[in-house]
Design goal:
The protein has helices at about 35-40, 90-105, 160-175, 190-195, 255-260, 285-290, 320, 330-345, 360-365, 370-375, and strands spanning about 5-15, 20-25, 45-50, 55-65, 75-80, 105-115, 180-185, 210-215, 225-230, 235, 250, 295-300. By secondary structure, the chain is α/β, with parallel strands linked by helices. It has one domain: 3-Layer(aba) Sandwich (Rossmann fold), CATH 3.40.50.1820. A nine-stranded mixed sheet has the order 1-2-3-4-6-5-7-8-12, sandwiched between helices. Strands 10-9-11 form a three-stranded antiparallel sheet. It is globular.
Length: about 375
């Protein structure tokens, strides 16, 4: 068991919703010594106590340095969000590998763990992941991916997954005075969370360049009711032929919307219908923030189909997701085209899909495209 909790810092911000405070407990979690995780990472889990007037709970973080000690050499921070299996250590290792030794000399990498209650955890578990303990914030296997509130923070001031990212950013900027760039990167389910967070992020506590890297999500948030359809040489094309950026896309309202066969296709988390009040920002405001944000999209060039290495078993196959394309690669290519046409003012925010990569965070992050997206100054 962990003995004592030296709470060394409180970071309290007045957001668009009630006051949220963060306390940092710089101790390994009680279960860290019971797994092999701490021997595989550069630092032990560190605990953040998040609080609103009516709720509180712990969020555990894998980090490349102690989070209570300023290091003037650190000028860049990367917050890396894990996938469905909550593999925080894996995405931490992929991110540090992408950085390399020279980049890591001035980079802080943090990977939070969105904990799930023990009864549900086996559905989204990775080897070595510590079990939830008393006091942890708890989500379901899917709720954190869309920024939902932790299940054990009831009332009118719950703690959401979006708030958790806000407070990680706030703490980094308050504790590390030399940090000038913060990148929030997610892969797979983490890519879903980051892509939806972009338009809802709380303003930084001090001036900083904030960047977002969205890696291979299973589905995307659209800000318009139209969805892309692939074309080639001016004619309708089969989705299966769109495995490179050679396909073009036209935008139109899906026939399924008018027929009523997929009535929820444009509702949150796929669109702006039924917009949650917990966001603290309207869909119009979120769209404007998304348009202005520094966003980069990452895909695996072979992240298509249902074969080995594609994580097809956790692919979103609802009709709402299928209207975005059949597989992650095609959905990403289609969204990049939509983004260019409707959001980015003609800018192309998609990196070349990582050759030879299926649904593998290490392969994608350490590819040339991955390194350029995560650490553009070093490309």
């Amino acid at each position: 068991m962990t003995t004592g909790k030296p709470w060394v810092r409180a970071a309290c911000l007045r957001l668009s919703i009630p006051l949220l405070c963060v306390w940092l407990a710089l101790v390994p979690t009680a279960h860290a010594s019971e797994t092999s995780v701490t021997s595989e990472i550069a630092a032990p889990y560190q605990a953040l106590l998040l609080q609103t007037p009516g709720a509180s709970g712990l969020l555990h973080v894998v980090a490349s340095a102690p989070l209570d000690v300023d290091n003037p050499a650190i000028t860049t921070a990367v917050i890396a969000i894990h996938g469905h299996s909550r593999d925080a250590v894996r995405i931490f290792q992929a991110t540090t590998a992408a950085a390399g030794a020279s980049q890591m000399a001035h980079t802080l990498v943090l990977a939070p763990v969105f904990q799930v209650a023990a009864a549900r955890a086996p559905r989204c578990h990775s080897p070595g992941l510590p079990a939830a303990q008393a006091g942890d914030l708890l989500w379901t296997c899917s709720s954190w991916q869309q920024g939902a509130a932790a299940q054990n923070t009831p009332g009118i001031t719950p703690i959401t997954a979006f708030m958790a990212i806000d407070q990680l950013v706030a703490h980094v900027l308050q504790q590390f005075a030399s940090v000038k760039t913060v990148t929030i990167a997610g892969f797979s389910a983490g890519g879903q969370l980051v892509q939806r967070y972009v338009g809802l992020a709380t303003a930084s506590v001090r001036p900083v360049h904030r960047r977002y890297v969205v890696g291979s999500p299973s589905s995307w948030l659209y800000f318009d009711p139209e969805r892309p359809l692939p074309t080639r040489d001016g004619h309708a094309a089969d989705w299966s032929t769109c495995t490179t950026e050679t396909c073009e896309f036209t935008l139109s309202k899906p026939a399924a919307a008018d027929s009523g066969t997929c009535p929820g296709y444009d509702q949150w988390k796929y669109g702006t219908g039924h917009w949650p009040t917990t966001h603290g920002r309207s869909a119009t405001e979120a769209r404007a923030a998304y348009v202005a944000a520094d966003v980069t999209y990452l895909l695996g060039a072979q992240d298509t189909g249902s074969g080995k290495g594609t994580a097809y078993s956790v692919l979103d196959t609802t009709c709402s997701a299928q209207l975005q394309g059949p597989y992650r690669l095609q959905r990403g290519l289609a969204y990049a085209a939509y983004d260019k046409a409707r959001l980015a003012g003609g800018a192309h925010r998609l990196m070349p899909p990582a050759e030879g990569c299926r649904h593998d965070v290490r392969c994608v992050f350490t590819s040339g495209s991955g390194r350029a997206a995560l650490f553009p100054a070093s490309k």
